[in-house]
């Protein structure tokens, strides 16, 4: 399958190009690697993209936040077999004092923590950077760089904390400082990052958003509530749209139907719990919204051709092999 490339302006060009006369611009870096988690990193970039939309009318369209992805060698970095992002290289030309730096998590973090070029780059930039946040396994990279100054900032690596929400809150804190609490609160509402997302009621202020933004907000809501017995009808109510319009906009914006998206979110969460915890299969099934272990077993056999127990054993064996390599 070919890759879908998420391109950013001038990626691969000289990192400092076009910066003259833009002292107000905030430099935001997102460190990624093959096998990183796009879900959590994507929320961070969306926060700043929405903030730029708010700022545009007062700046003749000039962005307030310059968000760039960085990887060891630059170029295309794969999130999955279908999606990649364009990045800048972690080299002397890109080393700078960022206003905020986010280190992505994901399955490839352990390998990335052994990447000497990336770790040396982090050792250079982290002490100069205002805000540093790790997302999940991204903590491994800062540990490898021995950047003790910011060890306390990486609170989203603590078990039980929602990586997407924690990293997004750090981004929102910067937006609040620059654009005010109303702007930050509005962005949080649009991304379904507030406490209101725990209900099935329409998200506040959606009347002022586009259909595409409502579809994205409902997708975030499904991610955050996948363990509950929610349905596509609930997502329709949250988005405050007609069912027909919602289904059309969701497929156009997300690339799959709401039911397919919810099933994949639940499946991903299930695989994480199987590989990373000793919870019983039935408990995991209930926590991920499947209802019971029998239904979960049927889903796994149909989608992965293995039982949940077989998947757990294989995932742990693969993790042990990677740790020894």
Task: Count the DSSP helices.
Answer: 13
Classify the beta-strand content into a percent band.
5-15%
CATH architecture of the largest domain: 3-Layer(aba) Sandwich
Biggest pleated-sheet summary:
7 strands, mixed
Radius of gyration: 20 Å
Oligomer state of the chains in this structure: single chain
CA-CA gap between termini: 28 Å
**Using DSSP, what is the number of strands?**
7
| CATH homologous superfamily annotation of the largest domain | Class I glutamine amidotransferase (GATase) domain
> Element order, helices and strands?
EEHEEEEHHEHHHHHHHHHH
Shape: flat
Helical content class? 40-55%
Query: Total domains, how many?
Result: 3
Q: The CATH topology of the largest domain, please?
A: Rossmann fold
Q: Strand pairing plus helix content: what structural class?
A: alpha/beta
CATH class category name of the largest domain:
Alpha Beta
Mean pLDDT: 78
pLDDT < 50 stretches: 1-23, 148-163, 195-202
Describe what this molecule looks like in 3D.
It comes from Burkholderia pseudomultivorans. It is a single chain. The chain is an alpha/beta fold and 325 residues long. Helices cover 48% and strands 11% of the residues. The protein folds into three domains: 171 residues, Rossmann fold, CATH 3.40.50.880; 47 residues, no CATH class; 64 residues, Homeodomain-like (Arc Repressor Mutant, subunit A). A hairpin with a 4-residue loop joins strand 4 and strand 5. The chain is flat and about 55 Å long.
């Amino acid at each position: 399958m070919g890759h879908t490339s998420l391109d950013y302006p001038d990626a691969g060009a000289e990192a400092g190009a076009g910066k003259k006369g833009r002292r107000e611009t905030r430099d935001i870096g997102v460190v990624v690697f093959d096998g990183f988690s796009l879900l959590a990193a994507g929320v961070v970039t969306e926060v700043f993209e929405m903030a730029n939309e708010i700022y545009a009318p007062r700046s003749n369209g000039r962005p307030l936040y310059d968000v760039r992805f960085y990887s060891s060698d630059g170029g295309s970095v794969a999130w999955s077999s279908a999606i990649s992002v364009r990045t800048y290289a972690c080299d002397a030309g890109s080393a700078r004092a960022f206003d905020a730096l986010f280190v992505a998590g994901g399955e490839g973090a352990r390998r990335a923590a052994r990447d000497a070029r990336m770790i040396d780059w982090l050792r250079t930039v982290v002490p100069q950077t205002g805000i540093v946040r790790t997302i999940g396994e991204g903590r491994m990279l800062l540990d490898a760089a021995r950047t003790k100054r910011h060890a306390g900032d990486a609170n989203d690596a603590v078990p039980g904390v929602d990586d997407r929400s924690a990293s997004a809150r750090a981004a929102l804190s910067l937006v609040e400082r620059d654009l005010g609490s109303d702007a930050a609160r509005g962005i949080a509402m649009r991304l379904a990052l507030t406490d209101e997302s725990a209900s099935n009621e329409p998200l506040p202020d959606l009347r002022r958003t586009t259909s595409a933004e409502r579809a994205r907000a409902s997708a975030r809501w499904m991610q955050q509530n996948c363990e509950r017995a929610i349905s596509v009808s609930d997502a329709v109510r949250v988005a405050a749209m007609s069912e027909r319009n919602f289904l059309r906009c969701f497929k156009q914006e997300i690339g799959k139907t709401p039911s397919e998206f919810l099933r994949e979110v639940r499946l991903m969460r299930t695989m994480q719990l199987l590989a990373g915890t000793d919870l019983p299969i039935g408990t995991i099934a209930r926590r991920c919204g499947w209802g019971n272990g029998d239904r979960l077993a049927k889903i796994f056999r149909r989608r992965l051709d293995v039982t949940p127990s077989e998947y757990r054993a294989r995932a742990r064996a693969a993790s042990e092999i990677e740790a020894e390599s």
